[in-house]
Amino acid sequence: MLVAFLWGLAEATFFFLIPDVFLSFVAILAGRRTWAHILAAICGAVVGGALLFQWAQTNPAQAHAAVARVPFIQESMFVSVDEGLRTRGLTAVLIGSVTGVPYKLYAVEAPKFSTQRDFLLATPPARAVRFLAVWLMFAGAAGWLRKRRSWQTRQLVRVHAAVWIVTYALYWGRIVFR
Predict the structure, then answer these.
(1) Of 140, 145, 118, which is closest to residue 46 (Cα–Cα)?
(2) pLDDT tens per residue, range 140-155
(3) Greatest CA separation found in the chain?
(4) What number is the average pLDDT over the span 136-143?
(5) How confident is the model at residue 114 (pLDDT cuts 50, 70, 90)?
(6) Range of the structural domain that residue 47 is part of
(7) Could you read off the pLDDT of 12-34 as tens digits, one per residue?
(8) For residue 23, what are the contacts with CB-CB under 8 A and spacing of at least 6?
(9) Which of 100, 120, 108 is nearest to 14 (CA)?
(10) Total-model pTM
(11) What integer pLDDT is reported at residue 31 of this predicted model?
């Protein structure tokens, strides 16, 4: 669970791989016990979000510049996040979690539109939606493949790696080749 907490914290701040990579791995190995890792990752995200929000409140230009240096973050993403927060409020954080917009951008832009308390209250559901969906997909697929196809853990781990490699190749390709 410590790995999940730290990954949630890291991704909420400056790491560029989502905790879903680890959570989906746990889902294929531990199935039902993944919920504790999901809670740990959400707690890490709340801590990371609080740190970035606070920094953006006290020094918005510096916080923005630091997040802008994270690999695959583009200035157009900040514009999109600002527009979403202005038009949808904190619901934009939830929408961003399922559309590929990094949470860290919301954390540094939210002080213009929200209180820290409200932003941090919006964080758990925004993170949980995708984490739970990933858990259900990977645990369900692993269970099905084990029963119907007699797949071993080693095979599932290979498929897991392939899924995330392809996912990130497509995601980063979309960002780089816009």
Answers:
(1) 118
(2) 999 999 998 889 999 9
(3) 55
(4) 95
(5) very high
(6) 2-176
(7) 999 999 999 999 999 999 988 99
(8) 4, 34, 37, 38, 41, 131, 134, 135
(9) 108
(10) 0.95
(11) 87
pLDDT(178) > 80:
no
Residue 25: what pLDDT?
97
Residues 6+ apart with CB under 8 A from 107: 12, 13, 48, 49, 52, 53, 56, 67, 119
Q: Give the chain's domain count.
A: 1
* CA pseudo-torsion sign 12, 103, 167, 21: positive
Give the dihedral sign, CA 83/55/12/115: negative
Q: Which residues contact 122 (CB under 8 A, 6 or more apart)?
A: 90, 93, 94, 114
Tokens of 95: 């929408």
Per residue, the 3-state secondary structure of the chain, as one string, reads: CHHHHHHHHHHHHCCCCCCHHHHHHHHHHHHHHHHHHHHHHHHHHHHHHHHHHHHHHHCHHHHHHHHHCCCCCCHHHHHHHHHHHHHHCCHHHHHHHHHCCCHHHHHHHHHHCCCHHHHHHHHHHHHHHHHHHHHHHHHHHHHHHHHHHCCCHHHHHHHHHHHHHHHHHHHHHHHHCC
Amino acid in the structure at residue 24: S
Q: Is the pLDDT of residue 1 over 90?
A: yes
**Token pair listed for 131:** 């984490």
Q: What are phi and psi of 45, to 5 degrees?
A: -65, -40
Amino acid, single-letter form, for residue 59: N
